[in-house]
Amino acid sequence: MSGQKEVIGRAMMDSAFFDEVRKTPGGEKLASCIQCGICSGSCTTSVGAEFNPRQVIELILLGLGNKALSTPSIWTCVFCRACTVRCPQGIDIPELMSSLRIMAVKRGALPREDRNLKFHESFWKILRANGRLNTFSLYTRVAGMQEIARTIPLGLRLLRKGRVAFRTPTMVHPEQLSSLTEIAKASEEASPR
Amino acid sequence: MRRHRDVGMSNAEPRIGVFLCHCGGNIGNTVDIEKVRDTAAQFRFVKCAETNRYLCSSSGQDLIRSKIQEHGLERVVVGSCSPRMHLKTFRDLCSSQGINPYLVEMANLREQCSWTTLDKDNGTDKAIDIIAGAIGRTAYLEPLTPMEMKVNSNVAVIGGGVSGICASLELANQGYKVFMVERRPSIGGHMAQLSKTYPTLDCSLCILSPKLAETKGHPMIELMTNTEIAAIDGSAGAYSLTLSRRPRYVNENKCTGCGECAKVCPVEVADDFEEETARRKAIYLPFPQAVPNAYVLDEKNCTKCWLCIKACKHGAINPRDQASQKKIEAGAVIVATGFRVFDPSVLTQYSFGAHPNVVTNLQLERFIEHGIYRPSDRKTPRKIAWVLCVGSRDSQNGQPYCSKICCMAAVKEAVLLRELVPNLETWIFYTDLRAAGKGYEEFYARAKEDGVKFIRGRVAEVVPVSGDELMVRAEDTLLGVQLEKDFDLVVLCPAILPEAGTGELAERLGLHIGSDGFLLERHYKLRPVDSQNDGVFLSGCCLGPKDVRESVVEALSTASRTASLLGKGVVTLSPEKAYVISDRCDSCGKCVDVCPTRAIELLPSGATVKSISCAGCGLCVPVCPKDAIDLKNSTEPQLMAEIGGVAGATERETRPKIIAFAEGTSAYTACDLVGLARQQYPTNVRVIKVPSVGRLHARHLLAAFSQGADGVIMIEGEGTFLGEGRFRAHVNEIRKVITSKGIESLRVFATRTTIPQFAKLASVFQTFTERMQKLGPLPSDARSKIKQVAVAR
């Protein structure tokens, strides 16, 4: 639930934004949303977020592009797909969140200081550099110093069991990494969004 | 200007009047009506051409009347809306002026022209072509007289729920003999299962059972339970139905309903009337007020121990009872087959079947009747939740439509239970609460005042938390927060579906099924209880979800529609029938083989058409090698003249020009619906109505090509006499001839459609036009080459 309430004026609404989102993956059936709330009732991660999935869709339907792209709520989705399995209108909400994230990155409309966003950024940075994930490095990038200090006992236990490693696992064919990133880049440029 | 086509009429020149309608701006905005009039006025035989703002208005009709007098008109062309709309209006009008109604032709300028385009220039050109076709055809029209047939005044009512019962009683009281056919062992339907009815809280069975008794005792009603329709034949006024009765093993007349048989019966099974909340014996009375009030033996579960025979003091049990068939004759049929409910166990998140305290609302109705308890420990529940839209408004996992009755049923149940159980918590989780209806909103307000809680949010999941308790999780969308609450009884309100077997029955009766699976009415607004088949009427939930009051309203409507069909004692039959030109017939019998209604007989004198059986589909016409059979009101010269007019009228050439032959009922209606939905398609496409694609011969397509068409589309309705296989074969046959004349096969396209699929036609027209644009116009040498071939006989 958003804490601060304000009047939504006509100037804030941009129907072009709605049309744009409709054309992105996940946006195909967006317009048929009946606001029943089964998505938000099923959502495991949006509790406490500024907007739940139903409200994010309502923002798009009203054309409130700035709000929809800059809210940290679009970064909370973990792709469990409980919402989509139950959605009576067949809206692919995780895919929609993904599209919104891409739009937000392209427009630089990212939220300030958001843990989920930081996670995504670090995740991809490590992956692009090494082709494999370094969980320790990922955690230290996302968590603050205090948090790290507090979780040292847990970290040691995980380390003993081999669930966390300082070392980045190596790729069998590291030379393929650059060609993979190139392909990804090319397809990104070729795609309309 | 316009070349004067020699239409080669043998008799004196027919005097044709052309009347064009603006329909306010409906036609006038995208068709230059005055220009169409000026062009039409120059056509041969046209003695006058007039326009009017609304031809169907009394001033418009006055205009037609006065022009008929002034010019001595013998035939009339009206360019306005679809003939489905006003053909009868204008036929009646001209008939009053002494013109045979079959000499009146309508040109569809609205649904199939002005409503499908925004381009006025091209719209006008298209309208001129349509009018030219209509004038061409009109010159060849022949006066026809409908035949009259004596009707059978019996009525067959299929389904003994509240709708079927009310329709039967209404007709029986008017003096019609009614056969009531019910599949189950008792009449009463779903209404017999309900506790009370909203919003008045009348006891459901208290108001229904007098009607059940009246049905049973009525001298004009013959009640047949345990019986289904096996076959049906005939047409409006003269149906013949074959009924098949399952054995009851109990003589209805001897059984007193004492119940001694059930006491000794050792078999116990779940009771379907009680929605499996109770058990019954293998020999049982469906419910205490059942009609007929006779026990019935459940063949599937009976062990044939026959203890019941010994127990029965009246000798009512007959172990040798057998299935039997019976034929009845009826002039009209009323279908009132009702509904079944969606199986909520499909939606696993609601734990139906996984936890005993999750029930459907029909089960709850039975609980209310017998004393409310929660199934897990049979104690009184303290907290009940209703989950609405279980399978309704759910295009992914259920049905896309709203089931309409669940909101009010849940509100009613909550109100009733609060009276029965003190301090009961009642929470209704809804998507949108729909309380539209007389007294419904007031009832909803009362429920709120009584203390029923309403949460706006579709329930996400029902999670078992202990032996008795369940946790309901949903978003309260009005707050935007997730809500979790424990209940000890969760009531699911499943979607309303058409009764099992509706599809098969529709096939037997020649009815249409809508995209939602329910039966389809003839016209959504104006003929809401007529089916596609004359003489078959539809009532109640077989048409869609509705409550008792609406089911009764429809029952009374069908009774009235039935009475107006049968009341006159005769029905008029369309004169649009096949006829044989006997001096050409060499008795080869090809027409006999293709006739879907077996209306053609081979007599020594040649083939003969039985007019009563002929459906007027015209499949027999193209197969005749001697051109010895033709169809009234769609004769060879009429069709050729219309093709000539549509294909070659306008001076400003439309390229590519496309002619779409549409089968007269479903496909033509679908074309109308495209316009009604204001879906745009290229004006290149002009529709010609034919009785069936099976009426067409390759020479009709050649005539179209030779006179200006660049492409031809053929559209057949689904469920017509030309089934899928024969349709494909017929089209291939035509295609073979067309390609042999040097025309690319790509220029011919054929498809089948149902009425609800109309939207696909707009895209068919669009893509086919684009294809023809790529292909370019038919080369003139190809056109002239086929010109010699394509002369009308």
How is this fold's topology laid out?
The complex is a heterodimer of chains A (193) and B (793).
Chain A: H1 15-22, H2 38-42, H3 53-61, H4 65-70, H5 82-86, H6 93-107, H7 115-130, H8 135-142, H9 145-150, H10 152-161, H11 175-190
Helix pairs in contact in A: 7-8
Chain B: E1 16-21, H1 33-41, E2 46-52, H2 58-71, E3 75-80, H3 83-96, E4 104-108, H4 120-139, E5 147-150, E6 155-158, H5 162-173, E7 178-181, E8 196-197, E9 202-203, H6 204-217, E10 221-224, E11 227-235, E12 238-245, H7 260-264, E13 268-270, E14 279-281, E15 283-284, E16 296-297, H8 307-311, E17 324-330, E18 332-335, E19 339-341, E20 358-360, H9 361-370, E21 383-390, H10 406-420, E22 425-430, H11 440-450, E23 453-456, E24 459-464, E25 470-476, E26 481-487, E27 489-494, E28 496-498, H12 502-509, E29 536-538, H13 548-566, E30 570-573, E31 578-580, H14 590-594, E32 600-603, E33 606-609, H15 620-623, E34 629-631, H16 636-648, E35 658-663, H17 666-676, E36 685-690, H18 698-706, E37 711-717, H19 724-740, E38 748-753, H20 759-775, H21 780-787
